Amino acid sequence: MSIWDHLRELRYRLTIAVIAVVVVSVLSAIFFRELYALVAYPYNQAAEMVLADNPGADISLVNSGIAAPFLLVLRICGFAGLILSAPIWLYQLWAFIAPALLAREKKWALAFIGSATPLFLGGVGLAYLLMPTAMAVMLGFTVDGTTNLIDGSDYLGFVMQMMVVFGVAFLLPVVVVALNIMGIVKATQLSQARTIVIFGSFVVGAVATPSTDPFSMLALAVPLSLLFVLAEIICHANDRRRARRRPAEEAAVGTPELTS
């Protein structure tokens, strides 16, 4: 394919992904009250933790502006569309990459690309479970006599950043394995870079998570490191399989055809 064909293919895949996100977002608007309660749940849990230790703290989740509640609902529905349509846009990503792979490797690679959806949703789910504790640590510094007004838009931004960062980070093994299958990265290179990657995981955990507590950093860095090690093991198995197959291929290519 020429560069223009690749660009047209990319435009097509992006269009399908965007349409999927928009359609699911519109459908999510039907359940906007339930979605709002789901988004507010981590805050309510964090507030209960803070008030249990510091009953004098005054913490309130507020919307500022006439249009703020409507805009907040729109953002919640859009975010729900992004999360719930993950299988569709992840498949579009796979469909764009797949032509670069050998035909016999596509089926083998599909098993790992297919794991992208549960990994992404698993990261999102882990972030959701950790948010009450992370927020309770930060809100716990509210002193008596001080009212902490949390803007709904800022709170939603915090929730979205946490969930997207964890979800994308959990896609690390899929990306690494895909690069290995395409021949861009070898397992030996991953082994040499393991220490740097693990150290980088802790740096990313400290920088990417919006909260400043070490609990959130470890909650992202430790699974990220384990997933990288898992991807490295898979890549070693793939390289060994490829090495065993190569002599047979070379022998088949070098065998002269019989002529009558």
Q: In what order do the strands lie side by side in the largest sheet?
A: 1-2
Which sheet architecture does the biggest sheet show?
2 strands, parallel
Strand content: under 5%
N→C terminal distance: 39 Å
Global shape: flat
Low-confidence stretches: none
- Give helix and strand order, one letter per element, not per position: HHEHHHHEHHHHH
Share of helix, binned: over 70%
Structure characterization notes:
The chain has one domain. The protein is mostly helical. A two-stranded parallel ribbon has the order 1-2. It starts with a helix and ends in a 6-residue tail after the last helix. Helix content is 78%, strand content 4%. The longest helix is centred in the last third of the chain and has 41 residues. It is found in: Cell membrane; Membrane. Belongs to the TatC family. It comes from Desertihabitans brevis. One of its GO terms (molecular function) is proton motive force dependent protein transmembrane transporter activity.
Short description:
The chain is mainly alpha-helical and 260 residues long. The protein is built from 11 helices and 2 strands, in the order ααβααααβααααα. The protein has one domain (3-241).
List the helices and strands and how they pair.
Layout lengths: L2 H26 L3 H22 L4 E5 L5 H17 L1 H12 L5 H11 L2 H24 L7 E5 H18 L2 H10 L5 H6 L1 H15 L5 H41 L6
Parallel strand pairs: 1-2
